[in-house]
Structures are given as C-alpha cells and as structure tokens.
Specification:
Layout lengths: L3 E4 L4 H12 L5 E4 L10 H4 L9 E3 L5 E3 L1 H11 L10 H18 L5 H9 L4 H26 L11 H15 L8 H11 L2 H6 L11
Parallel strand pairs: 1-2
Antiparallel strand pairs: 1-3, 3-4
Helix pairs in contact: 1-3, 1-7, 4-6, 4-7, 7-8
Length: 214
C-alpha cells in the first residue's frame, strides 16, 4: 500500500520528513501543497490534515500522521533500521533536545503563517526579516556548542539522526533569510557534509516536483 507525503518543497517541516524517509530507504508518492497560494487552508487539504499544516503522511489505510517530529519518531519505532536515534537513553535525550530547539523554538516563530500575521500587524519586510533572523540566531547560538561537543560527521556522532533531519532544513532556511553562518562553523560543516549524503540530497527542496525557480 503506497504512502503519500503531503509536502511543500521549501517548507522545513516536510523537508525533515523527506530526509527521514530517505534515510530509511522508504518510497512514497508526493502530493504538493502550495502554501503561498493557501492550499493548506482549503477544505480538500483540511480533510487530510485538519490543522492545515504540512507535512501529512497518508499511510493509505485511512491513517494520516502529522507533525514532523511525531512522524520521524514513528518511523524510528516501526522501521528501526537504519537507526536515526542513538542507542543510549542519554544520547537520545541530547538528540531530541537538538531537534526540539529547531522544531519547537526556532521554526514556529518564523514560518509562513507567522510572517503573514506580522505583515497584517503592519510590520514591514525589513522588520519581518529582522524578526526571523533573530530567532534563528538565538537557536543556533545554543546548537553550535552542542554540536561542537557531541558532533562528529553529523550533529551527534558520525551517523545521521533526527537532529540532522531538523538541522539541515533549518540551515537551508537560515541561508534563505541571509543569516551569516560564520559564527556557527560546526553547524555549517555538518550541513555541508550532510548535503553530500544521498538521502539529504534527494530530500533537498530543489529536487522536489513542486520546486520553483528562485
């Protein structure tokens, strides 16, 4: 039974799940959701995900999973090889903390709907950019020493984990928003190595069927 991933090419949350699926070697059909056009708010998509957000992973049996971290954890629990969480409980806690800083502290404050709300409140483009950059830097300021301490080839050790599933899309977003990565050499180095990995390359926004020229 084929899975369908409801995704948006540049959005970081579905990007995380695409990486996780690729790391696990899992195939799926791709259903594009145009967030700029507002398709996520239309009844057809709300019937898939009532929250009106991406991603949504339809398992084809009437079950739809939402929220990127929940999907990644489910993948690890149901398809444990290759692992995307370390074996030791303390190591898993560190990886989950890294992922949480990105998915819970950085991303919710600079996603599309927040930008739209700020615009409606009268904040101009420069103000929104400053807002977005500030929250990314705050998160990266914490992540940089964590990766320096725990990282190897990837954010934690030498194998990809859920932390990398979150970090690589957030670095992509940071570059979109003109954040200087100079103060974050360990994050930048992990991102460079990860982007050379086949699973991360396959999940890259520019490789998606709904990618648009910039």
């Amino acid at each position: 039974m084929a899975w369908t991933l409801h995704s948006a090419w540049r959005a970081t949350a579905p990007y995380r799940v695409r990486i996780g699926l690729a790391l696990k070697g899992l195939t799926y059909d791709y259903a594009a959701v145009d967030l700029i056009a507002g398709q996520q708010r239309e009844p057809a998509y709300r019937a898939v995900n009532p929250q009106g957000l991406t991603p949504a992973l339809d398992l084809g049996d009437g079950t739809v999973l939402t929220q990127s971290l929940a999907i990644l954890e489910w993948l690890e629990e149901t398809r444990p090889q290759p692992p995307i969480l370390p074996r030791a409980a303390m190591d898993r806690a560190v990886v989950r903390a890294m992922a949480g800083i990105i998915a819970c502290d950085i991303h919710p404050l600079n996603n599309t709907r927040v930008g739209r709300k700020l615009n409606k409140m009268g904040i101009d483009k420069d103000g929104i950019l400053d807002w977005t950059q500030g929250w990314i830097r705050d998160g990266f300021d914490v992540l940089e020493p964590m990766v320096e301490t725990h990282g190897g080839q990837f954010a934690f050790g030498d194998s990809p984990t859920i932390a990398d599933c979150c970090l690589i899309p957030q670095v992509y977003s940071a570059l979109r928003y003109e954040v200087d990565l100079g103060p974050y050499p360990h994050l930048a180095a992990v991102a460079e190595r990860a982007n050379a990995h086949p699973a991360f390359a396959a999940a890259h926004p520019n490789r998606q069927p709904d990618a648009k020229p910039l």
